Amino acid sequence: MVTKKLLNQFFRAFFIVCFFICPAVVKSQPKYNVLFIAVDDMNDRLNFLGSPVSTTPNLQRLLAHGMNFTQTYDQYPLCSPSRTSLLLGWRPDKTKIYNDKQRPRDSIGPDPQFLPEYFRNNGYHTERYGKILHGTFENDCKWDYAEPPERNEGSLLPNHSNSSDLTKALAPDGSWWIDNTADSIFSDGVEARNLVARMKQPVSQPFFYAYGAHFPHNPFTPSVKYWNMNGDPSVQQFLPIDQNGTYSDLKGNGSGNYILPNTPLNDRADVPVLAFNGHPILIKTNDDWKNTIHAYDGEVQQVDAQIGLMLDEMDRQNLWSNTIVVFWSDHGQHLGEHEGLWKKETLFNESLHVPLIVCVPGKPGGTTCSKMVEYVDIYPTLAELCGLPAPQGMEGSSFARLLDNPTQTWKRAVFSQLRRNQGALVCRAVYTDQYHYNFWDAGQEELYDRIADPHEYTNLVTNPAYLTALNNMRTILADGWTKSLPPACTTMKTFYRDADGDGYGGKTDSVSACDAPSGYVTSKTDCNDGNPNINPGATEICGNGIDDNCNGQIDENNPKAKITPLGNTDICLAGSVALRANNGTGYTFQWFKNGVSIAGAMQRKYVATAAGNYKVTVTSQQGCTATSKEGVVTNSCGLTISSGEISSAQSANAGTQLSVYPNPSTGKVTARFNSGISGNVKLNVYDLSGRLLMTKTEQVLKGANAFALNLSTLASGIYYVELQNGGRQNRIKFIIGK
Questions:
Q1: Cβ-based neighbour number of residue 334 at 10 Å
Q2: Structural domain contains residue 287
Q3: Is residue 437 included in any domain, yes or no?
Q4: Residue 21: what pLDDT?
Q5: Tell me, what CATH number does 91's domain have?
Q6: Is residue 281 part of a domain?
Q7: Is the domain of 670 the same as that of 605?
C-alpha cells in the first residue's frame, strides 16, 4: 500500500530531478552555428567581383543568403602569415609570422586563442576538414575533431597526393595540366563529403565547422569536367595530362576566347624591384598563357562544386535559420600580369584583394558592401554576431553593423605588409577608396590611382599632379591603423520592422544598432516600416525628406517655385511682359528684380515694364519656402547695330539696299534688296550672339529682288539678316514675336 509518506518522498525526488534537469530542456535558443569556409589562393577573378569570365554558381547561391564585401584585403599575401593573422585578429607586427616556415606557437606562445579555440572555450563543438592554418602547423590550433593530420614540411599538397610525380607540389610557377581524379577521391572532395556527413548528425551544442580547400593552387590541375565549364566548346584542343606535357587522346574546350591582361610594355620600369616577388619572370606565349588562366578557372570551378555539397545540406536542413556562413580566401593569385608575375607575395591588387561573403540569419541576402574591411576584422565580427564576450587584444574592428547598414561611414584605410630579404626589409601598404600607397624601408614608394588605373600599371610618385594625394597617403601610413578605424558606436538604439506583417503582434522584430538598418524604423507605430523616410508626427517639417504626418507624402508642404512668361519676353513688342508663378493653395509670393525685392510685388502674377532678371520666392502656410530660377526680360527697342556692323554696312555697295518686311513678324518674312550686278548672293541669319542659324544662296538680277524666308521655327527674339554680295555685305535687325 502506498502511504502518504511514500508519496511525499516520490514528489520530493521528482521535484529535485526537475530542478536540476528541466533547465537543460527549456534553456534559451542556442547561439548561431558557424560554417567557416576557406580556400587557397583565390583572387578577385570572380563574376561577383566584376570578372565577366569566371562563374561560380555555388558561391552565387551563397551570395543569395548573405553580403558580398567587395573591398576586402588580407594583411599579408602569403599562406601562413595571412591565416595566422586572420585566426588571431592580430596584424603581422604582433604575430611575428612573416613566412611559411615559422611555427605560430613558437612566436605567440601557448596562451592566445585562435578563433576556433575561442568558440570552443565558449561552448561550441569545433571540427576542421582541410586546411585552416598552414598545413604544416595545423596542430597549433586545438579542435574537438580535425582531419587531415598536420603534414610534414615539404610533403605533397593534399590534392596531389594521388600523383606518382613526387615533385608535383614543387612545380614551377604557372604550371598546368589535367588531373582527372574524381571529386570523391581528391582531398578537397573527400573532406567536403566528410564534413557534409558530419552535418547530417545531430548535435547537442552549437557547432563551429571549418572547411579548408587546397584549390585553387599552383600547379593548376583541374579535372576535364571543370576545365570544360569555361573556354570555347566549339573548338576542341588536346590537353596535357601531367607535368611533363604528355598528351593522350584527352580533349577539352579551347582557350581562344580568353582575354589576356593588357599589360603595357615596360610595366616594371617605374616600380621598385622589391615590389616583385622574386619568382622567375615567366613570359608565356599567348596560347599557353590563356591555357594557364583557363586551368586556374577550372580549379575555381572545382572547389565551387565542393562548396555546393555543403550548401545542399544547408538547404536540406534549413540551417540558414541558425547558422552563420563565412567564405574567404587566404590571399590572391597572380596570373602573368606585370610582365610575367605569378603566385603571390606582392602588394599589387591581384595579391591583396580577396573575396569575402558573410551570411547571417535574419540579415538580408543578395546584398553588397563596398566599405573597406580587412581580415583582422573577421574574429571580432564573428564573436559579436554569435553573442560571445568581446575578445581582448583584437587589432581589427567588428563589421557586424555593416550587415545592417552597409553605407555608413567606415574605415578611412586598410593596411597590409610584406617583408623581403628574410624579413630585413619591410614594405607597408595602405588602401583607401581611391589610392593605393606602398612604402619600402629602402625609401622607395609607389602610388596608384585605383579609379583611373585599377590594374596598377602607373606609379604616380613622381607625377606632380598627385603630390597632394601622395602626401595624404604618407600621413595615413604615418598615423597607423589605429587612426583609420571606423567611428565608435557610442549609443546603441533599438530599431523595429514588422517582418511578418502582423502589425507588431506576436512576433515583433527589433534590432539593437548604432544606425537604422535598411527597412527598420525608430518606432513600432511608424506608418510604413518599409521606408525609413516615413515616420509618425504631428506636423510637417520643411525640407526634412520625411512624411511626418503619415499620409504617404514626403515634404508635401514644400512649395515649388517656377516663373512662366505669359507671352514674349521682349518688352519692345508690347510695352510690358507678364510673369506668373506656379499654382498653389495658401501660398504667398515676393518678386525680385536683379536680386532686389520689388515693393508691393506679392501676387502670383507680376507685370514687368523694364528689362532685367526676375525671380520669385514662394512661401507655404507652414513657412516652407522655395525660390525660382531667374527669368530674363529684354528690351530690343534700344538696341543698335555695333560699330563693326556699321563699318561693314558702309563698306557695302552703296547701291545695295536691304529691308525685311514685316518687321516684327511671326517668322515668315520677305527680304528685299537692290543689286547693282547680276549673279549669286548669300543670305545669312544670326542671333544676337552671332551664332549662324541659317544660310542660303540665291541667284539675283541687277535691280530690285525679293526672296521669302520662312523662319517660323525660331523662338521669339531679335535676329539679324545679312546679305553678302561678292565682297560687299549689308545687315539689318528684325524681330520675331509669337
A1: 26
A2: yes
A3: no
A4: 38
A5: 3.40.720.10
A6: yes
A7: no
252 and 386, same domain (yes or no)? yes
Q: β-strands 563-565, 577-581: how paired?
A: antiparallel
Question: Strands 596-597 and 717-725: what pairing?
Answer: unpaired
**What per-residue confidence (pLDDT) applies to 726?**
67
Strands in 692-700's sheet, in edge-to-edge order, are 692-700, 679-687, 717-725, 728-736
Q: Does 261 sit behind a cis peptide bond, omega within 30 degrees of 0 on the bond before it?
A: no
In this structure, the answer to whether residues 622 and 659 fall within a common structural domain is no
Phi, psi of 13 (to 5 degrees): -65, -40
d(CA 35, CA 385): 13
Domain assignment of residue 378, given as a range = 41-430
Which DSSP symbol is given to 536?
Answer: -
Mean pLDDT across 636-641:
49
Among candidate residues 609, 633, 657, the one where a domain is terminated: 633
Looking at the fold, whether 654 and 533 belong to one and the same domain comes out as: no
Q: Which three cell numbers stand for residue 86?
A: 586572420
Task: Report the alpha-carbon distance of residue 664 to residue 98 in Å, rounded.
Answer: 86
DSSP structural state of residue 9: H
Residue in 685, 672, 695, 682 with CA at minimum distance from that of residue 718: 685
Same domain, residue pair 624 and 497: no
What's this model's pTM, rounded to 2 decimal places? 0.68
Element of type H or E holding 673: strand 668-675
- pLDDT tens-digit readout, 172-226: 889 999 999 999 999 999 999 999 999 999 989 999 999 999 999 999 999 999 9
According to DSSP, the residues that pair with 694 across neighbouring strands are 685
Average pLDDT over residues 375-387: 97
Residue 37's H or E segment, with its range, is: strand 33-39
Can you state the percent helix, strand and coil of the chain, rounding each to 5?
A: 25, 30, 50
Query: Of 397, 430, 463, which residue is a domain's last?
Result: 430
Neighbour-count burial of 398, counting CB atoms closer than 10 A to its CB (0-12 exposed, 13-18 middle, 19+ buried): buried
The total domain count for the chain is 4
**With pLDDT > 70 as the criterion, what percentage of the chain qualifies?**
83
Quote the CA–CA distance of 58 and 68 in Å, as a whole number.
14
Identify whether the C-beta of residue 69 lies closer than 8 Å to the C-beta of residue 358: yes
Q: What mean pLDDT is predicted for residues 405-414?
A: 92
Q: Which three cell numbers stand for residue 140?
A: 597549433
Q: Is the pLDDT of residue 466 over 70?
A: yes
Cell 505669359 found at? 566
Tell whether 278 and 350 lie within a shared domain.
yes
Helix (H), strand (E) at residue 236:
strand 232-240
Torsion, Cα of 674, 677, 680, 686 (10° steps): -40
Judged against a pLDDT cut of 70, whether residue 712 lies above it is answered with yes
Tell the residue number behind the cell numbers 548535435, with chain if given.
Answer: 203
Query: Three-state DSSP class for 408?
Result: coil
Contact 446, 477 (CB under 8 A): no
What CATH number did the domain enclosing 611 receive? 2.60.40.10
Q: Which of 589, 581, 587 is nearest to 620 (CA)?
A: 587
Please give the order of strands across the beta sheet that includes 668-675: 658-661, 668-675, 703-710
| Maximal CA-CA distance, the chain | 147
Q: Can you tell me which residue has the cell 610618385?
A: 461
DSSP 3-state assignment of 210? strand
Residue 704 within a domain: yes
Preceding omega of 464 cis (within 30 degrees of 0): no
Looking at the fold, whether 395 and 497 belong to one and the same domain comes out as no
pLDDT at residue 715 in the model: 83
Claim to verify: residue 199 and residue 103 sit in the same structural domain: yes
Cα atoms in the Cβ-side hemisphere of radius 13 Å centred on 604: 12
Q: Where are the alpha helices (DSSP H) in 333-464?
A: 337-340, 349-352, 378-385
The CATH number of the domain where 716 resides is what? Answer: 2.60.40.2550
Give the rounded distance of the alpha carbon of 102 from its chain centre: 36
Residue 555 has pLDDT above 80, yes or no: no
Q: Nearest CA to 293 among 402, 203, 216?
A: 216
| Segments in 506-578 forming alpha helices (H) | 571-574
Inter-CA distances, 636 with 407, 630, 684, Å = 54, 19, 20
Nearest-angstrom CA–CA distance, 148 and 82: 21
